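User: I'm writing a tutorial on reading structure tokens. Could you give me a worked example: one chain, its sequence, then its tokens, then a sentence or two explaining what the tokens reveal?
Assistant: Sure. Here is the example chain.
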Amino acid sequence: MAIIGIDSLGYTYPGSSEPALSDISLDIDEGDYVAIVGANGSGKSTLVRCLNGLLQPEPGTVRVAGADPSDPKGRVAARKALSLVFQSPPDQIVASVVEEDVAFGLENLGVPRPEMRERVLEALDRVDLLAERARAPRFLSAGQQQRLAVAGAIAMRPRIVAFDEATSMIDPVGRKDVLALMDDLVASGIAVIHVTHDMDEAARARRVAVLSEGRLVFVGTPAELFASDRLDGLRLGRPRSYAAALRLGIEPIVGEDAAALGARAVRVLGAAITVAVSEKASAGGHATGGDPIALADEAGAAFSLRDASMSYSNGAENQCRAVDCVSMDVPAGTVVALVGKTGSGKSSLLQLLDGLALPDSGSALSFGVDTAGRKADLRTVRMRAPLAVQRPESAIFEPYSGDEVAFGPRNQGLSGERLVERVRAAMDAAGLPFDEYRDKPSRTLSGGRKRRLAIASILSLDPDALLLDEPTSALDPASRDDMLRLIRGYASGGRTVVMSTHSMDEAASADRVAVMRDGRLEAYGPPDFVFGTGWDSSWGIERPFAFELDEALIAGGRA
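And here are its predicted structure tokens:
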């Protein structure tokens, strides 16, 4: 029986000449598990906002548990039935204490105090935030804030939960926990709608709905979607194991992990595949790895940290050590990936490199400048190595996209044709063609396009280094590949990139990987070392898919 009915739905944002959604019809049954996928700007977030009355669709109708969310009376009933986890967690965090934020919706429903406390603690425990229940949400990392938003939604015990990119800023282990929570919700009869750009996540759903330019162009099983020849045109990809099976020349299985694929490949392909992988390993490939990188001469490094520590709320009762005695050098012309669990200190480390935060002790040098020095020109430091923050929408302030990208170069003294050329080059490189996007209102861009706009805004400074906090989060598969090519191309010109990422596959493509845990630098070296001989499962992250598959193939050959 359908708990959500969407019939001929359309929606156009005020001031826009193009509809964000056109003629959408879709039914979702009780206990169903539907993934909604599509390129950036295809209408995914707009659709889920129409389901609880945040947007009023016209034309068309929506029914949620029998209620019309476009009607004031029906909106209350619809929101009781459907909880929405936003793409940007701060949009729904309202309280100054973590446990009070989870309780906010329950208070509005008049849930008795004893039951409210039980639900709050249960929800926080399910998202691994119980230890943070007395903290202020603003001191949580972006990933922890995302978990908080999930806790607030499930505490309501709704009949439907819609997750809008709710795993995009969570570490791999935490992502698995949230995905397992979705499975639990479905098993208990709750319908789950999962908006995602991750094809491994989409593969877990019972059905997949694909949006393209505001239209529903496919509804079917994951197996039907990934066997389609339309994926490239839709800017989508295939799950990692599915794509690897095709490369190996064996039948792909939706939902198969690296271990299962490796074992099956050995059975199907025999000794030839394991010999090839073993030779690769003995030559220094994935399974063995190289050596860790020692500290270098500071004079030859783009960035140098020496016993650098930094705390939030210094001296206060809730003081939190974000970076703890970190020493590392980033050679010029390299790409360094920062990885680690949510809240491990990655974003704080980037702020130290940029001079947005200063060390409490130790030193942080940016191109030889001690950022805490009395004579340090921090404005120059930040323009030479600008930071694209984790939530680009929080840093965008100009009404129009072209003006946003032009802000930095104007402050560098550029004007006229030189300014236009710089802005055009930056927007084109970031995948926002200048002629198409320069006059688009910044606030109307999708989450993924805002992320590209943030990247263009620092590219326009023509800096010596880029500091990127989760640069591929909220990007569709094709745009993610474009961004990684941009990063690699930028570094190939002798410039430097330091980026945080929760994708170990992305980290494996960097020159060096730095593993953070509880503010400390646990490992630093080439990907083959960090994910090979230097690997430690206690870091709380996972290894790249290719490393896991190689190991499974070798293990299968020995069995």
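What the tokens reveal: The chain has a mean pLDDT of 89. The chain has three domains: 2-235, 242-286+550-558, 299-539.
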